[in-house]
Amino acid sequence: MPLTHVVLVVFFLAGLADWLILWENTGLSLALLVAAISAVVTVLGRRDWPVLAFAIVAPLLLAIEVTALSVTLAFFALALAGMLASGRCPRSVASVLPALIRFMAWTPFRLFADSWRGARIARRRPMAVKLNAAIWVMPIICGLVFVSLFAEANPIFADLLGYLDPFAWLTENGVLRLMFWAFAIIAIWPFLRPARAMRFKTVAMRAPKTESTVFGEPAILRALLIFNALFALQTALDLVYLTGGAALPEGMTYTNYAHRGAYPLVATAMLAAGFVLAALRDGSASAAHPLIRRLVYLWIAQNVVLTATAAFRNALYVEAYGLTELRLAAFVWMGLVALGLMLIIARIAWRRSGAWLVRRNTVVLGVTLIVATLMNTSAFIADYNVSKWLGDPDRVTAIDTGYLMRLGPQAIPAVDRLLAAPNNMSDDDAWRLFEWRASCAGIILNRSEDWRAFTIREANLAQYLSTHDITHSGPAALPEL
23 — alpha (psi -120 to 50), left (phi > 0) or beta? Predict the structure, then answer.
């Protein structure tokens, strides 16, 4: 495994240790951390049954009870798993204990020794170092873009970004956290250092084209690994907060949380689709790479889930504050994004061209626009908001009569139901609605007399108004409709 991968995994495990252990009660959290290290050791090295056995025993001992003995035995079990996985465990049983003692003795110094060795290799092969650094430019930049969008949508991501503030590390807690991270990295590193981990994985020593380095297969592969991890974390947090009932940060309600994230998540999914189209363009080597294709499938599937989550957030906001044209358009747009992502999967799986994808998306967009034209949006929104408000026995919040009037004459049938039904509207709101209704009805009825102004929708409304004439009375004496 390349050195850069080992470094990233170690930093991830150190962050996990921060979340599980630092300033928290220790119990199952320590067992989970050891289980994560065991899983990584097993994946990186040999996966025969002795490795699996010790990798399972190490966290199990801590899950039973955290004592000095269980911590020591778990450390030995994890060390044996690491030595077996990397092929450095002696074959003689009598030599195992001395090997473990040497492992313990060298644990505090292994990271520094490997860093010194890596620096010597880097000095001998500077071109390889530059190429490996260039490969990470695109994944890191794009990853930061997605993190910033998630921070806008999710307060937990915003808190994580707060750790990047250099002034936050100068406080007393920041210095303690920095010391904890240093200790965690030094302690975890030896377990993840297989026999060939320090070899720099390089491309050809000749100078490659910029595209093949910055946006080539290695860069795309690393980017997809980072993106899948970020999206999985975002999805997990949404499941915890939106459906799991976890407590939100102080000062934030579930409604604000839902509204805060709907639009950034859709923007994230659209950027993800653009990245996939650029990375797996027609005829590129990346499009034929099996692992890249599988990671793209996984990432697009996560984007579809992300879009569904954004729709769920929007639905929560509509439930709290009612439906508007913008919120309805957001539902339609989220559906188009999700369908577009699934068409991208179909294009990759069936090996279709980019023109094939453009044609399908054009058809979908055209059908959507036609349906939107045929749909009486104003009447639908007004009817939904009135029905929801009349069906709520508590009616804690007042119905937005101003928005009902802004929807135009097509909202008149819904307004009639609102005025006729028993409700707790103020007299001013009721009379304002009544006067608006009378004015709009007069305009529609006058237009219906001119054949040049005929439209099917206005003709239907005029027919409704001719059978529901309430202009002779006020809102307090409206007939049953």
Answer: left
How far is Cα 151 from Cα 164, in angstroms, rounded to an integer? 13
> How far is Cα 56 from Cα 112, in angstroms, rounded to an integer?
29
Residue 195 — very low, low, confident or very high, per pLDDT cuts 50/70/90? very low
How far is 343 from 292, CA to CA, in rounded Å? Answer: 18
Q: What distances in angstroms separate CA 355 from CA 278, 360, 423, one per listed residue?
A: 14, 9, 56
Specify the higher pLDDT residue, 469 or 259. 469
Going by the DSSP 8-state scheme, the letter that residue 246 receives in this structure is P
> 172-189 pLDDT, tens per residue?
677 888 888 889 998 888
Give the integer Cα–Cα distance in Å for 368 and 439: 33
User: Residue 6: which of 101, 87, 115 has the closest Cα?
Assistant: 115
Three-class DSSP category at 291: helix
Residues found in the chain? 481
Please give the distance of CA 456 from its chain centroid, rounded to a whole number: 44
- Is the Cβ–Cβ distance between 295 and 304 less than 8 Å? no
Whole-number Å distance between alpha carbons of 134 and 213: 6
* Burial category of 467 from C-beta neighbours within 10 Å (exposed 0-12, middle 13-18, buried 19 and up): exposed
- Map residue 397 onto helix, strand or coil: coil
pLDDT per residue as tens digits for the range 96-149: 778 778 877 777 887 877 777 777 766 776 766 677 777 888 888 888 888 888
Compute the radius of gyration of the chain from its Cα atoms. Answer: 31
Q: How far apart are CA 277 and CA 343, in angstroms?
A: 11
Q: Which pLDDT tens digit goes with each residue over 306-341?
A: 888 888 888 888 888 889 998 899 899 889 999 999
Distance (Å, rounded) from C-alpha 58 to C-alpha 81?
9
Output the six-digit token pair for 363.
């058809």
Print the SS3 string covering 323-343: CCHHHHHHHHHHHHHHHHHHH
354 token code pair: 């980019």
Higher local confidence (pLDDT), 76 or 46 = 76
**Residues 411, 437: contact at Cβ < 8 Å?**
no
Distance CA 276, CA 342 (A): 12
Distance CA 62, CA 73 (A): 9
Two tokens at 31? 């067992």
CA 61 – CA 73 distance, rounded (Å): 8
The first and second tokens of residue 147, run together, are 């993190």
Angle at 270 (CA atoms; ends 269, 276), nearest 5 degrees: 90
Is the overall model pTM greater than 0.85, yes or no? no
Q: Which residue has the tokens 């490997």?
A: 114
Q: Residue 204 — pLDDT band, cuts 50, 70, 90?
A: very low
